[in-house]
Amino acid sequence: MSHETLSNLLHEARRFAPPPELAAEANVTGDAYDDAADDRLGYWARQAERLTWAKRWDTVLDWSNPPFAKWFVGGELNVAYNCVDRHVEAGNGGKVAYHWEGEPGDTRTITYADLQREVAKAANALLELGVQKGDRVAIYMPMIPELPVTMLACARIGATHSVVFGGFSADALRTRIDDAQAKIVVTSDGGYRRGKPYALKAVVDEAVANSATITNVLVVRRTSQAVEWNGTDVWWHELVDRQSDEHDAPAHDAEHPLYILYTSGTTGKPKGILHTTGGYLTQVAWTHHAVFDLKPETDVYWCSADIGWVTGHSYIVYGPLANGATSVMYEGTPDTPHRGRWWELIEKYKVTIFYTAPTAIRTFMKWGEDIPAQHDLSSLRVLGSVGEPINPEAYVWYREHIGGDRCPVVDTWWQTETGAIMISPLPGVTSGKPGAAMRPLPGIAADVVDDQAQSVPDGGGGFLVLKEPWPSMLRTIWGDDDRFIETYWSRFENLYFAGDGAKKDDDGDLWLLGRVDDVMLVSGHNISTTEVESALVSHPKVAEAAVVGATDPVTGQAIVAFVIPRGSAGNVDGDDFVKELRDHVAKVLGAITKPRQIMVVPELPKTRSGKIMRRLLRDVAENRSLGDVTTLTDSSVMDLIAEKLPAAKSDE
């Protein structure tokens, strides 16, 4: 894919300037771009000074052996101390760290002093179980407070945690435990989802049945459902609750491994992304402060992600706590017990900053704006988007119906591998452009290049690369340096490339086009699935769309679309609706982008993190047998789609 052939089809003229009062008091101003450009390493050193170091670093960056970076070399700090103890010592022990809300409606309010006591007790409990600095601890839990407590306890003693999303299968959990050679697993009897308890302990039992490394399973009682009990199992309330609530936090090297997080959706051996201590905490804390304009004294912040994904690591646990923020943490789904639950929580806790995924936003569009309209969302002042490119129409709906047409939307691009936000508007600086990720943050060197690694001009498209190391970057793939080099650094010499396509618009702003694997070659034109999906979602009757390329004897590949109509769309069963959509795409993007087939569906195949499984849709479009569907929220969706596809309208 080169800039000569990547079609640059979607145009967006709407602009939203920063609210004047936010701009006047913004944490980070436009000067930051110049400061970082003048002295990039000096800029990151100043951000590191926002943390408390037991020993100051000698060298900001060691890049003598690329692509293996070392940041803040010689420095020592403790992540848990920075996230908890220093706030208590500063007199803020009574400040709320988490407003926790269980799906059934039970609640817990956890102050920084509470968190300090619980983390110390959990750290002492891990030590009693024989966990030592450098050991790996697997965590497989629902969204309950013991999850961040366990992560912080690991960070405190220098154990490396590996959180596995609580929706993964026993086999997925086993492969991650084996790859990390974890010593213990921390889990719960179960959790609540869509009004019902689900089991976790039974999955762990299956995963560790023949483990060569697991010595204990530590179990939180959440649902009180019956569980099998083995000789190595330990109840959290019996072990942790009797521990001392004091623990001195030792300093760890800036490059000490903080956590391993396995990337989802891969086949074969999972990729264990390794993040270390000083650089990671520096960048997640600064980006949380800068991108969300966090005012810890007055803001109430809510990131709706699951901690099992990197968004939860960086922007529910480490970034917010390092900044002394008050956060909302919610266990359940947005439609339980009703479709207004999230807006109810924003109203209840007077949330000021809300960070969620385009998938969720498009779901709310499908349900209708009358649901959020029933709730007082006037406390909100900044909205964020994460996980995939946001369609312009979803951006505008989010801003209008959730943000009251006054809140800036920060559309953030980053990855498990980058550790922290890399490209985003700054809410007090940037005039937002629906659908555009805009510019790299100060201190980040991102660009779009062609297949010869040359920077493309404004208006061109190609590969998104990072040209300079950044503090929160992955250090390697756990146990596999060769795979790290091959996966991220082999396509272009000394440039990081993880597979995303992007374009620069005429203003030089960046638009993410999804994985280059999701670019379709139609009659010699490379067309991004993201742009065709955005064109479909811009139709007033469409809430969500997924687009894939299917082999075509005439055009090489043809565009096959799957759409979910909005609840207010009316009759969408006939050929007229499909023709209306095909003509709409042609009008927005050009005739070559008109889908060969469009299927109207009630739901799309999504992972439990909310990402559309386009691989499965490609299998259906190509009439192949379906691959692994165990990570889907509802595998029956694929049966329905497979049955309907032959009847979907084709372009004659």
UniProtKB/TrEMBL annotation:
Binding, Mg(2+): V537, H539, V542
Cofactor: Mg(2+)
Reaction equations catalysed: acetate + ATP + CoA = acetyl-CoA + AMP + diphosphate
Modified how: Acetylated. Deacetylation by the SIR2-homolog deacetylase activates the enzyme.
Entry-annotated residues carrying N6-acetyllysine: K611
Source organism, top-level taxon: Bacteria
Binding site for CoA: R193, R194, G195, K196, T311, S523
Keywords on record: Acetylation, ATP-binding, Ligase, Magnesium, Metal-binding, Nucleotide-binding
Pfam families found in the cross-reference section: ACAS_N (PF16177), AMP-binding (PF00501), AMP-binding_C (PF13193)
This protein's record includes keyword Metal-binding: yes
Domain AMP-binding enzyme C-terminal: 531-611
UniProt-recorded Gene Ontology molecular function terms: acetate-CoA ligase activity
Main enzyme class: ligase
E.C. code: 6.2.1.1
SUPFAM superfamilies per UniProt: Acetyl-CoA synthetase-like
Boundaries of every AMP-dependent synthetase/ligase domain copy: 90-470
PANTHER family in the record: ACETYL-COENZYME A SYNTHETASE, ACETYL-COENZYME A SYNTHETASE 1
Function in brief: Catalyzes the conversion of acetate into acetyl-CoA (AcCoA), an essential intermediate at the junction of anabolic and catabolic pathways. AcsA undergoes a two-step reaction. In the first half reaction, AcsA combines acetate with ATP to form acetyl-adenylate (AcAMP) intermediate. In the second half reaction, it can then transfer the acetyl group from AcAMP to the sulfhydryl group of CoA, forming the product AcCoA.
Family that this chain belongs to: Belongs to the ATP-dependent AMP-binding enzyme family.
NCBIfam families assigned: Ac_CoA_lig_AcsA (TIGR02188), PRK00174.1 (NF001208)
Protein name: Acetyl-coenzyme A synthetase
Natural source organism: Actinomadura alba
